[in-house]
């Protein structure tokens, strides 16, 4: 019986699905066989594959792929919640992005997912007191992905960055669980103030393309920020805000805006 329990604890549906999809890719497109084997089929766990992918993306002449891989391996071994969040991120991309048809796609192709996983490692470094190394990861993420996330920024699980370009998340920003954010979004401050100065994004929030959320303000759970809005004050839960400056224009339109991804003001789903 003890052996059966041990076996059950090792079941990983997300990784099992990714491996099966990887075999299908190799069979249908042999030219990608080398990459797919290196990124997925040569590894025994999702944690190993994630560490390898992060190392591939962040390595540079200043720090070798092997060193970055060792850092990522240490992060996953020290904090199992990092990989748990990655599994939720993969599911979020698959469920919310109509361009994503397989679990393997975020891991191989989507820079938003890859950047979030790199950030999760840099955040671990920050919490371990290894601040300069965390800044190095931030720099490489910005160079590689055009996404600038301060290592101290706290991000929940199930984050979906759609198109993932020109994103800026400040040092004291906090992003809840199951949030969806489109491209060209800033979670920033309003000047040179110090200490707690960046937005707090609640669970289930949808932030449209080009939105700027500025200052130590709170975006309530399951709310929507319309594309192009500039948000300078708190947003109540389950509402939609739009405009410059943003104002409440109605209810959120559904119970989970970040999942429905419906950005039409006044629409319900």
UniProtKB/TrEMBL annotation:
| Enzyme class label | transferase
Quote the Pfam families the UniProt record gives: Hexapep, SATase_N
What does it catalyze? L-serine + acetyl-CoA = O-acetyl-L-serine + CoA
For biological process, the GO terms are: cysteine biosynthetic process from serine
Keyword list (alphabetical) reads: Acyltransferase, Amino-acid biosynthesis, Repeat, Transferase
The record's listing under Gene3D superfamilies reads: Hexapeptide repeat proteins, serine acetyltransferase, domain 1
- Signal peptide region: none
Cellular component per GO? Answer: cytoplasm
Task: Name the Gene Ontology molecular function terms of this record.
Answer: serine O-acetyltransferase activity
Q: What EC number(s) would the UniProt record show?
A: 2.3.1.30
User: What PROSITE patterns does the entry give?
Assistant: HEXAPEP_TRANSFERASES (PS00101)
From which domain of life does this come? Bacteria
The Serine acetyltransferase N-terminal domain, residue ranges: 14-118
The metabolic or biological pathway listed in the UniProt record of this protein is:
Amino-acid biosynthesis; L-cysteine biosynthesis; L-cysteine from L-serine: step 1/2
Q: Which family does it belong to?
A: Belongs to the transferase hexapeptide repeat family.
Q: Which PANTHER family match?
A: SERINE ACETYLTRANSFERASE
- Cite the NCBIfam families for this sequence: cysE, EPS_EpsC
Question: What's the protein called, per UniProt?
Answer: Serine acetyltransferase
């Amino acid at each position: 019986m003890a052996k059966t329990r041990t076996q059950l604890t090792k079941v990983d549906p997300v990784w099992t699905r990714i491996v099966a999809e990887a075999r299908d890719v190799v069979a249908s497109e042999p030219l990608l066989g080398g990459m797919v084997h290196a990124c997925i089929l040569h590894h025994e766990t999702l944690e190993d594959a994630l560490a390898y992918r992060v190392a591939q993306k962040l390595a540079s002449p200043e720090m070798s792929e092997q060193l970055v891989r060792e850092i990522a391996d240490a992060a996953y071994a020290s904090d199992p919640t990092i990989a748990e969040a990655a599994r939720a991120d993969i599911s979020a991309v698959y469920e919310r992005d109509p361009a994503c048809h397989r679990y393997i796609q975020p891991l191989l192709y989507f820079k938003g997912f890859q950047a979030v996983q790199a950030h999760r490692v840099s955040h671990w470094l920050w919490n371990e007191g290894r601040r300069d190394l965390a800044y190095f990861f931030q720099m490489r993420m910005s160079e590689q992905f055009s996404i600038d996330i301060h290592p101290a920024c706290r991000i929940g699980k199930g984050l979906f960055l759609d198109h993932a370009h020109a994103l800026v998340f400040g040092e004291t920003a906090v992003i809840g669980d199951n949030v969806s954010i489109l491209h060209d979004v800033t979670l920033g401050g309003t000047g040179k103030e110090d200490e707690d100065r960046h937005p707090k994004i609640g669970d289930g929030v949808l932030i449209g393309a080009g939105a700027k959320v500025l200052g130590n303000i709170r975006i309530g759970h399951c709310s929507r920020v319309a594309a192009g809005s500039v948000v300078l004050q708190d947003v109540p839960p389950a509402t939609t805000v739009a405009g410059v400056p943003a104002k409440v224009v109605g209810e959120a339109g559904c119970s989970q805006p970040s999942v429905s991804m419906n950005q039409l003001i006044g629409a319900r789903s």
